[in-house]
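Teaching note: in complex prediction, the entire set of molecules is handled at once rather than each chain in isolation. The prompt given to students was simply: 'Predict the structure of this complex.' The entities are:
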Amino acid sequence: MLSTARFRELHRAGDPLLLPNAWDLASARWLVEQGAEVVGTTSLGVAVAAGVEDGTGATLVDTIALSRRLTSAGITVTVDLESGFSEDPVAVAELVAELAGSGVVGVNLEDSSAEGRLVDPARFAAKVAAVAAAAPTLYLNARTDAFWVDPIPAASRAAAATRTRETLDRAQRYLDAGASGVFVPGSLSDGTIAVLADALPAPLNVLAQPGRSLRELGGLGVARVSTGSLLFRAALASLGTVLEDVRRGATPGATALAIPDYATAAALGRDTGAPSPG
Amino acid sequence: MLSTARFRELHRAGDPLLLPNAWDLASARWLVEQGAEVVGTTSLGVAVAAGVEDGTGATLVDTIALSRRLTSAGITVTVDLESGFSEDPVAVAELVAELAGSGVVGVNLEDSSAEGRLVDPARFAAKVAAVAAAAPTLYLNARTDAFWVDPIPAASRAAAATRTRETLDRAQRYLDAGASGVFVPGSLSDGTIAVLADALPAPLNVLAQPGRSLRELGGLGVARVSTGSLLFRAALASLGTVLEDVRRGATPGATALAIPDYATAAALGRDTGAPSPG
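The expected output is the structure of the full assembly:
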């Protein structure tokens, strides 16, 4: 497992960390096998696997259980905590301190509510401050959701400018309160990403943006690229693709999927308690 | 949910049931959304998600939990029980009766050990008899593993003939003991499939065979085609495919995956307690 210091170092503006998001032990182990040094969790994947709605705080127990399962398996993990599962900064700080104690190197906290509205930035900053005080070495990624809760119409420069101002104002408050970096989810133009990266005195994290490579996002100043729920949704999609291959008699996944054989997949279940040496 | 009687009717030689195998609530719900009337479980997926080795009987608790979760969500399910998690026919029968009571329409039981050896057919037939007596309406799929534990060298007709005889002998014992159908996993030639389907007085279940369509397998007399661990492995593969798309800046999955959007995937977590009307 990586140290929190090493995880922090992996956030390099210009040479971004690609952080894939897992939702269970199998997906996390597979990502590590594929070369990921760190995995994030995706609250959507955890919610759907648990049969509850994402973003509503209903996944606290499942999120903690997944976090424990991954750290116990020797996987370096940063955990998506939605809005912290509480409006009480002390309760959120206790939760994060507990996770940090179990080996988690980072968390995400978001400043929008289950109803999809931005919360008061001062209240969110208080959460950030409490968490930063309780778990000072942990990487606290403050997610600010102006572009997420209210996606901008294509080509609306005025709307983008408003959301950029809102995002920068909120991000600075959270950094002042002790956040380690800022995560701005949503579909963002190159110009917006460059402005945010330039203005923020901390690592900028964005979602993967279709049509822009990791290198291109690095060129805009991004320090971390997350996949969010994308891999979970891709896994669902693969079921339909392969079932159709089976119906037609095509070699499953031949078009785009390098499907591991049984033995390779089964080996994921044999790892116990420690990362594989490779 | 389908009745056991309706599930039984779906096994039609010549017009096979395509039975996709799920490993958690999300994959099962997605398969139902894609049109599956019934889903199976895959012991490999359950094992890897739980961090234990497949085929060793270590997944009893997780298998029961998954089964409950799926039936509670209104999903019609047949459960892979490996070798029944016990060598005591009474214990296996009690487990299956409990599952049948919770709404499971079928189970798979296999006649090979965790070490990959075929067990004594008389002992396995005793398990089948106990289960059939304890859960008489449930569809009991007897899996017989001559082709699975010792895959035949390509083009070895003598080896195929030996395994075919072993398979037919075992299958008939299990059917005499009360099994509903026979599952012969492994890579099988068209000739072998046709001989097995012709000789067996009960529905024949095979794995998806690369290069042969569902219709072609039906033409050989197959009544049910399972995906086994294939979909679970395809889901793992999709992570690598999409991560590479992200690195390169390609539209994720554009080559072969119809990736659902966030809202579609999130809706899977909102279903509670009953199947969707559609």
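Point out the following to students. DSSP finds twelve helices and nine strands in chain A. Chain A has a mean pLDDT of 90.
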